[in-house]
Amino acid sequence: MSNAQLTLGLALPVSWAREDFLVAPGNQTALAWLDRWPDWPNGSLLLHGPAGSGKTHLGHIWAAASGAVFVAPAAVQVAAIDALAQTHLVLDEAQAVADPAALFHLINLMRERGHGLLLLAAAPPAAWGVTLPDLASRLKAMAAAAIAEPDDALLGAVLVKLFADRQLIIGQGVIAYLLPRIERSFHAARHWVARLDAAALAEQRAVTVALVRKLMDEAEA
């Protein structure tokens, strides 16, 4: 089996600990809202931001503090609402819930039972295309905080952490070379770190500026 094949399906450990969350101006408000728990209006909170912005990490931080469990959007169905609303919940990708009536009933039942509900979404509710007026009203009234795309300082720190998560030791020159050349997003940071990791393993070499330049030249070709 080749080294390139060995990179496929490799499960990497991820730390969701609070001390591993990178705090920056773009996410401070969201973190502050978590710290206000259990003093959330009606016991619920909505955090929204782009893919890879740290929403899931924040969800895990709150889950560790509150004892909440994660729920996938596919699980939010009318027949399952009573079973779901037994404890504090984190609903990831809330905008992907297929049945708006089910989400409306879940919000109501969680409130009635005094359980906390944290919704995580890629965009604010106004962009979800909600057609059920009662749900739109509930979401509009919910406390919410946005998570912004990273600035240079945060994106650099994210790159360092992503490389460290993969047990890759890289020099500051690699970070300095990457920062002005990749899209200003967490998604792009994850993409390039994964790609560099795979290339370094396949070629049995370290992640260097030369390797970054080579991959970027290939991407532009």
Structure notes:
By secondary structure, the protein is of the alpha/beta class. The chain has helices spanning 3-6, 28-35, 55-66, 81-84, 100-113, 133-141, 152-165, 172-178, 186-203, 209-220; strands at 44-48, 69-71, 89-91, 117-121, 144-146. A five-stranded parallel beta sheet has the order 2-3-4-1-5, sandwiched between helices. α7 (152-165) packs parallel to α9. The longest helix is centred in the C-terminal third of the chain and has 18 residues, at 186-203. The chain is elongated and about 60 Å long. Residues 1-12 have low confidence and may be disordered.
Features:
221 residues, alpha/beta, 10 helices, elongated, disordered N terminus
Average of pLDDT: 90
Helix fraction? 40-55%
Rounded to the nearest angstrom, the radius of gyration is: 20 Å
Strand/helix succession: HHEHEHEHEHEHHHH
Largest sheet: 5 strands, parallel
What proportion of the residues form beta strands (DSSP E)? 5-15%
Could you tell me how far the N terminus lies from the C terminus, measured between alpha carbons in angstroms? 29 Å
Weakly predicted, low-confidence segments? 1-12
Could you give the count of β-strands? 5
Secondary structural class: alpha/beta
| 3D shape | elongated
Adjacency order of strands in the biggest sheet: 2-3-4-1-5
Number of helices, where a helix is a run of at least 4 consecutive DSSP H or I residues: 10
